[in-house]
Design brief:
6 helices; Small_GTP-bd; 239 residues; two-stranded antiparallel ribbon; Ras-related protein Rab-18; alpha/beta; Rab_GTPases_membrane_traffic; single chain; 26% strand; P-loop_NTPase; seven-stranded mixed beta sheet; Rossmann fold
């Protein structure tokens, strides 16, 4: 069935959650990267690969869950490996499929998650405003994604999560914004419990990614965005 802007799909990689195998095929390309294809993409024109990284327990999975499913689960377990979600949106009148990779923050999974940095269009680096250490580690995460993404046009957004716990704040808004400005990143603070905050953050990130590609049509032929053309086989994909 076709994908519409209000419909979401979820595929989980290396974790024990359900996989919608009727809607997606997962295979490996020649470089070892995963290619994930919806079984029916006739009405889909573009896709962006987005990734969330950061220390463990900063709320990456909660952010994705709220954005994709409009749910919040404060008992959610830590991600083991990588989780994959899909959300379709409308951007300037065009259907865009967001392929969102939620990665584990544990050191043990670092070598595996690096595989998923490649050809990423947009990245959210998430820290917990109540845990100073998670903010101090942002520079390491930034270096990781810029080194391994292989995309010179990568848009990175720094997100301070748990803004609803202001009384326990250890990182000021000014600190976060200053770091983002110094490193050419977008910046925002949000609470994973508030759908509006998260929707706005993704809107800004995706809007910047879309504008970058829109301003240089040649970029549509590479990196992680695909333009569907009538002459291509239905299962053709680039990742």
């Amino acid at each position: 069935r076709g994908l519409d802007p209000t419909h979401t799909h979820k595929v989980t990689i290396a974790v024990t959650k359900s996989v919608d195998r009727t809607s997606f095929k997962v295979s490996t390309n020649s470089t070892g990267g995963l290619i994930v294809m919806a079984s029916d993409q006739n009405d889909m024109e573009t896709y962006f690969k987005l990734i969330l990284i950061g220390d463990t327990e900063v709320g990456k999975s909660s952010i994705v869950l709220m954005y994709v499913e409009k749910e919040f689960d404060d008992t959610q377990a830590c991600t083991l490996g990588v989780e994959f979600n899909v959300k379709s949106i409308i951007m300037k009148g065009k259907k865009v499929e967001l392929r969102i990779w939620d990665t584990a923050g544990q050191e043990a999974y670092l070598s595996m998650t690096r595989t998923y940095y490649r050809n990423t269009s947009g990245c959210m680096i998430v820290y917990d405003i109540t845990r100073k250490e998670s903010f101090l580690n942002v520079s390491r995460w930034l270096e990781e994604v810029r080194q391994h993404s292989a995309n010179q046009n990568l848009v990175v957004m720094l997100i301070g999560n748990k803004a609803d716990k202001n009384s326990r704040r250890q990182v000021s808004t000014e600190e976060g914004k200053a770091f983002a400005d110094e490193n050419g990143m977008l910046f925002g603070e949000l609470s994973a419990t508030k759908e509006g905050d998260i929707a706005q953050a993704f809107k800004e990130l995706v809007g910047n990614v879309y504008e970058k590609y829109e301003n240089d049509p040649q970029l549509f032929l590479r990196d992680s965005l695909r333009i569907k053309t009538p002459n291509k086989p239905e299962n053709s994909a680039v990742d």
